Q: What sequence folds into this?
């Protein structure tokens, strides 16, 4: 029978060195009493009172010569530990107490003590020291730490909230971001820029798992390029200057990285303005960025591509809307039994309303909005929707149909609903809101004055005069397509651009092949 800490277990109660051969001495320290060994006065005694765990030691060796006494090492004064460190002395006391417990027929404390200290000492009772990693291991660990820290920098920028859209903070946290650095290839960076009526946005991303990407850098700022456009038909000098300043920052970010492929687009403001082409020529001259003006159908398809991961497999029909600054795109999506890899291929009907939060608020006033003025905005948008020729959506069972909103309006509603102290994209993107919750949030915003809306951290002063116009467009859509729930998407054209470019280049297919080759 083996004792896991001390070798052979003694055949009688107590500890003994009688079974040792060749005159080997016990590891246990002798204690003096009157200048001689404690066991010398009682050589045959195995009494445990006062000497728990002490065993009789032979006073002569095999030749009959007196055994040489062990010298005691002293550290400091009389009470210092002898023949070892204080830690070894504490170990001996623990072993002595364990032997006493076995002598009384109760071995439970001993087993419990062994379990307690099993991870702290080796078989001989010595503490185990933690092995220091070799230099190569330290280097590998340092590299792993850097890889884990990279997405944190993007997330830190994302936490700057909605106000970061003016200050140029990054927005992160997409589905691919949570797989930061996993299956990503540093030589494949993609960039997407969207210059809208109200915002200038940039994303630089890296493909990871199929259908996903990790945001490397991002920029967003409210420029209000379409300010005054509805009245004059032209882009104002002040608005163009704000946009060019933002585009200079985007150009600097793009120059500092090796971009495999990029696509830079302009939407409604440049489509409508008579000096839109002239403005884009100025952008090329001052920033080096060549932007293309896309049509409304392309804009609707890109919005659907950017939100495809938020449409579940059980969904059969979706109405996706993007409330912009100068226009609002609406796409009706019907999914049968066979779902395409690109959700945009399931669009059956789409429309682009020539109204957005900037144009609607300028016509009706966005600073002081009464319930009557709000209802007037809803009726105007509803009249536009009446001209949209789209068959009614049939809902067979719960979960077959829902709305998806991708715009600053719906993300603001979600932030207010969650009562966030600061806008956080990770908590908003993908959240579900019931029909009653949306109605309650709209009523709350309508009850606030301009100052109250501006003081809310999820709205801010730059959106305080636009948010109710957006709510009016949303209300008109909800009345046309009643739905028990709506999903919020803090994503849109940039994500659609990135997804389409990566799919066209087959990067996810190539990455899958590389992983297979690396595994072999």
A:
């Amino acid at each position: 029978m083996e004792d896991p800490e001390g070798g052979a277990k003694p055949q009688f109660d107590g500890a003994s060195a009688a079974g040792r051969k060749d005159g080997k001495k016990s590891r246990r320290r002798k204690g003096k009493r009157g200048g001689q060994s404690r066991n010398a006065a009682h050589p045959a005694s195995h009494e445990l009172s006062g000497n728990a765990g002490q065993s009789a030691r032979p006073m002569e060796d095999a030749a009959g010569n007196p055994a040489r006494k062990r010298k005691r090492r002293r550290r400091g004064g009389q009470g210092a530990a002898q023949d070892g460190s204080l830690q070894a002395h504490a170990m001996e006391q623990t072993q002595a107490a364990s032997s006493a417990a076995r002598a009384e027929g109760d071995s439970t404390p001993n087993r419990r003590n062994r379990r307690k200290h099993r991870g702290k000492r080796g078989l001989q009772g010595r503490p185990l020291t933690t092995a220091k990693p070799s230099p190569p291991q330290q280097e590998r660990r340092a590299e792993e730490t850097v890889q884990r820290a990279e997405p944190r920098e993007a997330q830190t920028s994302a936490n700057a909230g909605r106000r970061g859209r003016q200050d140029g903070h990054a927005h992160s946290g997409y589905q691919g971001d949570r797989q930061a650095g996993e299956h990503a290839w540093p030589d494949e960076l993609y960039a997407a820029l969207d210059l809208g009526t109200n915002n200038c946005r940039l994303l630089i991303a890296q493909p990871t798992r199929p259908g996903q990407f990790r945001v490397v850098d991002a920029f967003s700022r409210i420029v209000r390029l379409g300010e005054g456009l509805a009245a004059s038909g032209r882009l104002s000098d002040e608005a163009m200057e704000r946009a060019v300043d933002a585009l200079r920052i985007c150009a600097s970010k793009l120059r500092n990285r090796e971009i495999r492929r990029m696509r830079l687009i302009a939407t409604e403001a440049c489509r409508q303005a008579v000096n839109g082409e002239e403005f884009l020529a100025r952008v090329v001259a001052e920033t080096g960025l060549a932007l293309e003006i896309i049509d409304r159908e392309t804009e609707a398809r890109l919005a659907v591509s950017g939100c495809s991961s938020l449409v579940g497999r059980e969904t059969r029909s979706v109405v996706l809307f993007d409330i912009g600054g100068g226009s609002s795109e609406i796409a009706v999506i019907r999914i049968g039994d066979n779902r395409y890899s690109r959700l945009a291929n399931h669009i059956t009907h789409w429309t682009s309303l020539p109204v957005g939060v900037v144009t609607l608020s300028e016509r009706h006033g966005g600073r002081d909005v009464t319930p009557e003025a709000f209802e007037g905005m809803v009726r105007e948008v509803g009249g536009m929707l009446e001209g949209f020729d789209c068959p009614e959506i049939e809902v067979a069972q719960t979960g077959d149909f829902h709305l998806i909103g991708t715009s600053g309006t719906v993300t603001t509603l979600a932030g207010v609903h969650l009562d966030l102290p600061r806008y956080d994209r990770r908590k908003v993107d993908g959240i579900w809101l019931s029909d009653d919750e949306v109605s309650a949030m709209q009523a709350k915003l309508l009850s606030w004055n301009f100052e109250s809306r501006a003081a809310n951290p999820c709205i801010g002063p730059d959106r305080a005069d636009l948010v109710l116009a957006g709510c009016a467009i949303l209300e008109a859509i909800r009345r046309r397509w009643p739905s028990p729930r709506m999903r919020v998407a803090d994503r849109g054209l940039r994500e659609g651009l990135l997804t389409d470019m990566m799919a066209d280049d087959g990067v996810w297919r190539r990455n899958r092949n590389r992983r297979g080759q690396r595994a072999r």
Remarks:
- The mean pLDDT is 74.
- Residues 234 and 275 are 6 Å apart (CA to CA).
- DSSP finds 18 helices and 15 strands in the chain.
- The first strand starts at residue 2 and ends at 3.
